[in-house]
Amino acid sequence: MVNDKPEPEQNRAEELFDLSEDQKNEILCLAREAIKDRVTRFPETAAGGIDEGLLQPAAVFVTLWQDTGDGDDADNRRLRGCIGRLQPDYPLYLAVRNAAVSAATRDPRFPPVAPEELDSLTIEVALLSPLEIVNDLHDIVIGRDGLVIEAFGRRGLLLPKVATRMGWGREEFLRNVCLKAGLPPDTWPAGGTLYKFSTTVFQE
Q: Which residues of the chain are in CATH 3.30.700.20 domains?
């Protein structure tokens, strides 16, 4: 019997960044060292002996979570910063270091991280696949795809985990990425360009 059901589309980011656990741990250590050096105003630690697998160009987002002291569950932590780059214009290890420092010091929603906060932070790294234009809302898979909207000189991005955490469907996800960009929630498809991307995510 022929199965006409199409095979599910793979997570492109996981295919592009097939990292070992040791490589992931090295990335997380580099991110934490970079944040610590910046917020304590120590001279930046030189990155030496970088694994060859971490030299490939990468688009990266770093998210900082802060433990609220109410337990170990993910619900007992709050966002403390999230910044990244959509363009893979730096080697993976350097892109992560830069994004980690920016998440700790330049997210306009939060004050810069203070030295006494370091021990309460958990670092999460998301490596992004290249952007793909979305022509049909049904092309979006909740939980796998993140969204980027560009219209009228504005751009907004939401990572895949946001839709999952908020319990959004495709239409809610679309409306909220438009709002993130400061656009009307019904901007697309009448205007602008909508993109999707996938991520491979790991954390401390």
A: 12-42+54-129
- Positions of CATH 3.30.1490.150 in the chain: 132-197
The amino acid sitting at 132 is E
Tally of CB atoms within 10 A around 28 = 20
CATH number for region 132-197: 3.30.1490.150
Q: What is the mean pLDDT of each run of 10 residues along the chain (204 residues)?
A: 46 85 95 96 72 92 89 74 95 97 97 96 97 96 97 96 95 98 96 96 95
The 3-state secondary structure of the chain reads CCCCCCCCCCCHHHHHCCCCHHHHHHHHHHHHHHHHHHHCCCCCCCCCCCCHHHCCECEEEEEEEEECCCCCCHHHEEEEEEEEECCCCCEHHHHHHHHHHHHHHCCCCCCCCCHHHHHHEEEEEEEECCCEECCCHHHCCCCCEEEEEEECCEEEEECHHHHHHHCCCHHHHHHHHHHHCCCCCCCCCCCCEEEEEEEEEEEC
